[in-house]
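Quick one:
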Amino acid sequence: VRTDRHPWQIKSVEFNLNAEYSRLTGTVGFSDEADQWNRRWELRASTIENGVERILFSAYLDSVGVHAPMDVDVTGVRRLELSVRLADDSPLSAGPSTNYPTVWANPILHE
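Output:
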């Protein structure tokens, strides 16, 4: 998980796709161990092109048990970033070591 490019309210991981895939499918949601934080979270799939973030997928979730299907066109994407962030600007009281309660389930890259 990379945190150096973002403020601590965002956690992300990056993958090299090398423009070899057409779609990413799966489900996003909260882990079963997540606390009910009364916060709204954004789960995002994006890529950086010429220094500009292009959002490919975004889902907003705010309670345990809620999930969203994901079907993302990744045609031509060289680097894919999956991130989770607070949907508002309010800081977490627990600080930067807080575990973010989200899951990217059954991710499949399709050629």
